[in-house]
Design goal:
With 947 residues, the chain is α+β, with helices and mostly antiparallel strands. The protein folds into five domains: 3-104 and 151-207 and 242-406, Glycosidases (TIM Barrel, Alpha-Beta Barrel); 416-555, Rossmann fold (3-Layer(aba) Sandwich), CATH 3.40.50; 561-651, Immunoglobulin-like, CATH 2.60.40.1180; 662-672 and 811-946, Sandwich (Jelly Rolls); 675-794, Galactose-binding domain-like (Jelly Rolls, Sandwich). It contains 22 helices and 57 strands. The strands form twelve sheets. The chain has an eight-stranded parallel beta sheet with strand order 9-7-3-2-1-12-11-10. Strands 36, 37, 38, 40, 41, 44, 46 and 47 form an eight-stranded mixed beta sheet that branches.
Length: 947
């Protein structure tokens, strides 16, 4: 590890977002956005075709843009990553592959009770099945899915066609940049069948070659055992285990290996993520076993959607394979669906948690090229120039760039291997009943949580990977480059035969094996007296934290001792240790969202200790024993035995408060952008007809979609204002409409826009009157027409009144409640504003700090008596004010920068702020309320604290 690279990470360690290529692309603007990404802390982009794309996919204009961007990024040392599909899931070739014929389309195996009449089309067998005294006749049939469904990705020729449709075209046009400016290819959610298809049809995955391949793998016929796949008859556990082992291998051979080999031959990194990796049931339905696919990815990856810490086993699966097989980087497509209010604190909280679990390459979902129409609702947030906080983005990306470099070096220190129990889940699964699989998965995930919350690090052992890369060396079980002193068998009934052989050798050499909750007794779905006898001699722990920890902890290698003092509970702490030659890095993350955690650490070393501060790049000297605070969501990295020159010392933890004074003042509000009013209710009519009742604009869109193309209709927005005032009206694609304000037609200037080029801006001040105002749009319906909300810009305050028309009034530039400035007339405001006040301060003993509890914004910047105190982006919300504060009156200024949340919504969700935002969240009649709902804009609990 080079400390210079930690301070200033190379481009390859920087996070990379999806650029949603989602409209008719203009080269000049496209290149401007792409270049801006590098200035905002990213290492480049994933060129991702998404909803709204108008430039023909993989056509001449497409590749002209690709070549132009690759050329520019080559000049700027940026990275242009290929995304391999038009939308997702991958493998379709933009819809071309499934058009090649039935052999190329996905297939499923169905079962049904026989009735009078002909058997279903595609029937393979009709069997009489003995169900314990009663006999029933069952049909087993293969259904070829219709054109438009997924291709058959267990069919090698289908995947070959996918490669020819996409990858080979990129090679023709920009192959000279492969392995250089173009590092690799992203695949997104490939799957042999969709989770929903198998659930709805109560089916299993199938491909034409499955009977032949199954016979080759297992020596008997799957066609003679079809009832065992759906009913508990015959050697059903054995048949199911063998079935899914073959299905997984076929998908692995056809897709993962073929794509990996193509990338390997062409100097590209294969990355991305597979579908439904977050549960055993999802893996069974879609991919077989996630961890097997990671072997055939250069940078294996996952998907982490939403705003929260969930499913840590997903990160641990991918990090385990990467560690075992020596893969330097692990990717996470993250932040998608989290909503526009995702804050910098949220981003650090989620990202640090993932990095502690083993991720070291962040892929942001998603940056929108265009906000036009449905595009702005494409699984927000958007990481794009329209965001008010855009110019501050590098602060977050620099933090994760440094962590990406640091946590890619050396090897993780892990003593415990937890066997992955998906093989047992294969044995038990029969459609449509998920309960046996859920039981196994729940035991597996509970064990995962118990280990993580005990600060016992571990890796998973996938049994097919263990078979290929496992060995026993002395008292260690090795898997590839990793070695373990303890093997934990989670609640699972069946082991792979080769796993059992490894465990016997490991036990004979003195290795420790612990069973949790139950002891396995089956080999690949069949009872084994030998395994049952062996397992009976192993220690058995309850699937409880204390029971597991008491058995395992004495066997762990020496490391820092950590004692909890106060604050967030210790089970919120994650510990990630890495060995780098003679040095060691210890990365500690407090996963609690709000509370600080105070710890006492003894690094148990005679070597020097440094703190490596990811947010700044500073290197600080550190005592070998110390007390530290880790704020909610914060991560702190310490290096033991690393040679580097410190730039200072780790500051001591803050002392207890000596005095606290809440800040109460009359604050002057100064906007840095025009205020905004959203018009999201409207009426409509066929021209010449009667106006409808007032309705949400999305309902207007639904209604007009039923019109015949060419039908002329009108849409009417309304607002009220106290006094005439200059205003700008903003409409998406205004040039497509005849626009009238209070009966007067408005001319369109193509050079005026706001937020996005499609948000066209028209000054209407001379047409606005005191009282009620009407905006009417007249247009002929076309299938690509989208009716969207309208916006007013100007100097005013807004009284938002739900379904009633909004009222614009003169601003009162003062407020006393700092917790939510929206109440002063800014319910939709997206931008920066400044709050200024005279604050009277009394003298107290101790050092003064400005502190607060909640940040109702993305960025806050404080100035006191003309001195800039600094920027607060995440917890702790605290600034040292000692050098600027005076007794008596002090001039305090707070600059707040928020997000697009209150402007673009969802604005009518009747529950609290939610963190799983999708396109339907903006139009969900079940969750709808007419009142406006948003997130606060302000500072909660502002105070001065002397410590």
């Amino acid at each position: 590890m080079r400390i210079e690279n930690f301070k200033n990470p190379p481009m390859d360690y920087r996070p990379v977002p999806f650029l949603s290529v989602n409209d008719d692309l203009q080269e000049a603007r496209f290149l401007e956005i792409a270049e801006d990404f590098l200035n905002k802390g990213w290492g480049g982009l994933f060129f991702h075709a998404r909803v709204g794309l108008l430039t023909p996919y993989l056509g001449n204009r497409w590749f002209n843009l690709v070549r132009a961007c690759v050329k520019r990024y080559q000049e700027l040392d940026g990275r242009f990553w290929i995304y391999d599909e038009n939308g997702w899931p991958s493998g379709q070739g933009g819809g071309q592959v499934s058009q090649l014929g039935p052999r190329f389309r996905s297939k499923v195996l169905l079962s049904s009770k026989a009735t009078e009449g002909l058997p279903p089309a595609g029937t393979l067998r009709t069997e009489s099945v003995d169900l314990g005294g009663t006999t029933e006749r069952w049909h087993f049939a293969v259904r070829v899915m219709q054109q438009g469904y997924l291709p058959d990705l267990m069919e090698p020729d289908a995947v070959k066609a996918f490669l020819e449709s996409t990858h080979e075209l990129y090679k023709v046009h920009v192959g000279g940049a492969f392995g250089k400016t173009i590092p690799g290819v992203f695949t997104d959610e490939p799957q042999y069948a969709t989770h929903h298809t198998l659930c709805n049809l109560k089916a299993l995955p199938w491909t034409e070659t499955l009977p032949k391949e199954f016979k080759r793998d297992h020596g008997y016929s799957i066609l003679d055992n079809l009832p065992s796949l759906f009913l508990d008859v015959g050697r059903f556990r054995k048949v199911r285990y063998d079935f899914f082992s073959t299905v997984t291998r076929l998908f692995l051979d056809a897709y993962s290996k073929q794509i990996y080999n193509w990338c390997e031959e062409n100097g590209l990194k294969y990355t991305g993520h597979y579908e439904w990796e977050d549960s055993f049931l999802g893996q069974i339905h879609c991919i077989g076993s996630a961890m097997q696919h990671y072997e055939y990815m250069h940078y294996p990856g996952i998907d982490h959607l939403g705003r929260g810490l969930h499913n840590p086993w997903v990160e641990k699966q991918v990090a385990s394979v990467a560690s075992q097989l020596g893969k330097e980087r692990t990717l996470s497509e993250t932040y998608g669906v989290a909503g526009q209010s995702l804050s910098f604190h949220d981003r650090r909280w989620v990202g640090n948690w993932q990095y502690a679990l083993g991720i070291n390459f962040l892929n942001h979902h998603v940056s929108l090229y265009s906000l036009r129409g449905v595009r702005k609702r494409d699984y927000p947030p958007t990481f794009s120039p329209p965001q008010p906080w855009w110019n501050y983005n590098a602060a977050v990306e620099d933090h994760f760039s440094r962590l990406s470099y640091l946590l890619s070096q050396g090897r993780r220190i892990v003593d415990v291997l937890v066997l992955c129990s998906i093989g047992s889940a294969w044995c038990e699964y029969k459609p449509p009943d998920p309960s046996p699989v859920d039981r196994i998965f729940n035991g597996f995930t509970a064990l995962t949580e118990h280990l993580l919350t005990s600060q016992i690090d571990f890796e998973y052992g996938e049994e097919f990977i263990l078979e290929k890369y496992g060995s026993v060396r002395g008292r260690f079980l090795k898997v590839g480059k990793s070695r373990y002193q303890v093997v934990v068998i989670p609640p699972m009934a069946s082991l792979k035969r080769t796993t059992f052989e490894f465990l016997k050798r490991f036990s004979d050499c003195g290795g420790m094996i612990v069973c949790v909750a139950e002891r396995p007794s089956m080999i690949e779905g069949e009872q084994s007296a030998e395994l049952a006898s062996f397992a009976s001699g192993l220690p058995l722990a309850k699937n409880e934290k204390a029971s597991i920890s008491s058995l395992i902890r004495p066997k762990l290698s020496k490391g820092p001792t950590i004692d909890w003092l106060w604050g967030a509970p210790l089970d919120r702490l994650l510990v990630h240790r890495r060995r780098m030659g003679k040095a060691e890095v210890c990365f500690l993350v407090n996963t609690d969202y709000r509370q600080t955690m105070r710890l006492q650490i003894d690094f148990q070393t005679d070597m020097p200790v440094l703190e490596l501060v990811a947010s700044t790049g500073r290197v600080l000297s550190c005592p070998r024993k110390l007390v530290i605070d880790i704020a909610g969501g914060e991560g702190r990295a310490f290096a033991i035995g690393l040679e580097a020159s410190p730039e200072g010392s780790v500051p001591a933890v803050l002392g207890k408060p000596l005095a606290t004074s809440p800040v109460r003042a009359r604050w002057r509000i100064t906007r840095e952008a025009p205020n905004q009013c959203v018009l999201d209710y409207a009426r409509w009519r066929v021209t010449g007809g009667r106006w409808s009742k007032l309705m949400p604009v999305w309902r207007v869109q639904d209604v007009v979609c039923s019109l015949k193309p060419g039908s002329e209709f009108e849409v009417k927005y309304e607002f009220e204002t106290k006094g005439a005032r200059p205003l700008d009206l903003v409409l998406e694609d205004a040039h497509r409409f005849d626009v009238y304000v209070n009966g007067s037609k408005v001319d369109f200037d193509p050079n005026l826009w706001w937020l996005d080029p499609s948000f066209e801006r028209m000054p209407i001040g001379g047409r606005v009157v005191a009282g009620r105002n009407v905006v009417v749009l007249r247009v002929r319906y076309d299938s690509d027409l989208s009716m969207e909300d309208a916006y007013l810009l100007g100097d005013f305050a807004v009284k938002a009144r739900g379904r009633r028309t909004p009222l614009l009034v003169d601003e009162d530039p003062f407020c006393e409640d700092l917790s939510d400035v929206r109440n002063a007339g800014y319910p939709f405001y997206a931008g920066a504003l400044r709050l200024e006040a005279e604050v009277n301060v009394q003298a107290h003993a101790g050092r003064p700090y400005i502190e607060f509890d909640e940040l109702g914004a993305t960025v806050s910047e404080f100035t006191l008596n003309g001195t800039e105190l600094g920027r607060v982006l995440w917890r702790e919300y605290r600034l040292d004010a000692a050098d600027a504060m005076a007794k008596g009156n002090n001039r305090m200024s707070i600059r707040l920068v928020n997000s697009l949340r209150n402007l673009l919504g969802p604005r009518h969700w009747k529950k609290d702020e939610f963190t799983g935002v999708n396109p339907n969240s903006f139009r969900d009649a079940h969750g709808w309320t007419d009142r406006y709902v948003g997130t606060p804009l302000g500072i909660g609990g502002l105070r001065i604290v002397w410590r």
